[in-house]
Amino acid sequence: MPKPPRQMQLSPATRAAQALHYVNPAHGAVVPGIEPASTFARDSDYAPMGRAVYSRDGGPTVDQAEAVLADLDAAAQSLLFTSGMSAIVALFETLRTGDHVVCPEVGYHGTITWLHRLVELRGIRATFFDATKDGALEAAMEPGTKLVWIETPTNPNWDVIDIAEAARIAHAGGARLAVDCTVTPPCTTRALELGADVAFHSATKYLNGHSDLTGGVLALREEGVFADELRLVRTLHGTVMPAFEAWLLIRGLRTLYLRFERASESALAIARHFEGHPKLAGVLYPGLPSHPRHEIAARQMQGGFGGMLSLMAQSRKAAHHIATHCNVFIPATSLGGVESLIEHRIAVEGPHSVVAPELLRLSIGIEAVADLIADLEQALEGAP
Ligand SMILES: *Cc1c(COP(=O)(O)O)cnc(C)c1O
């Protein structure tokens, strides 16, 4: 593959748009092909002809996608999984019985559910801390803490956790720091550069951006025993991303910067428009100067505050009304796609949810922002 001249310091946005200046060396195609083979032939010495041997370990298309992702995160290595959750499960699989994990109380419900299961069935110990309280993360540390897992901004309240500070605390206690960066893709936050050991992304969300695949990424600061163990777990679980999804992801990543910039601009406009609205009890968005940790967010989200925000309706009934009376926003779960979504979060998470019943989670896409504002206004108008 032709590489751009060495002396050129290209910005990550350029490298993402060109999928690392991809040109096929055999015929010049500017887009990589899909290699769906499950097995790979050997040469006359019976040595593998390339990196791949069998598709459960990975393959050329996954390698290509991982190269682009590692570049975006400034990672030594990125590993792609069939879903965000399978990446999280692989990471937690590296814990030993008796190890202690620290994790925010409110966060992505799949992660929290999985951790509770490990505590019940596998002898992992966990402390859940209140991410809105200063000093709570440090107080949750114990001598046996092996993993500090954080999410920032935390889903769906969008509390902000200082990644650099969390890294200092984790490392002082001899633990690794892993950051769920799903809402803050590398075009705005490069967690590894802020001190994290692992940056996790659900590739289902912003990285792909088109709501047409599920995938997960673990971006690792270092090669070595830990990276090898994660790769082995992925092979044995059979959770490597398939070639077609990896190919779609490479395509999605080309527009990551553009999509995220637009979503961030529109989300900020929406947050400003609805802050103080008479039919709402509040707007949760780290990009608003009124957000309690706006300054930390501004420091660690340099490419925009993203497209995720929550509106607090005046009651559960009002929230239900708004979620069911939008004509532009689509009432569906997930986030980070080009189409805007609205979720009555408690209805999605179910009876064990700790989310406020009046919370509406919005994922802002790339539509005309005036249409999005007008849609919410008309839904609010009829709200009880
Ligand atoms: C979606 C999501 C996950 C899980 O990813 P899947 O691709 O759905 O398995 C984890 N964390 C956050 C913050 C998410 O939004």
Descriptive notes:
Helices cover 35% and strands 15% of the residues. It has 384 residues and is α/β, with parallel strands linked by helices. The chain has two domains: 7-253, Aspartate Aminotransferase, domain 2 (3-Layer(aba) Sandwich); 256-381, Aspartate Aminotransferase, domain 1. The strands form two sheets. A seven-stranded mixed beta sheet has the order 1-7-6-5-4-2-3, sandwiched between helices. The protein has a five-stranded mixed beta sheet with strand order 8-9-12-11-10. It is globular, with a radius of gyration of 21 Å. Pyridoxal-5'-phosphate (PLP) binds at residues 83-85, 108, 110, 151, 155, 180, 182-183, 202, 204-205, 214, 216, 335.
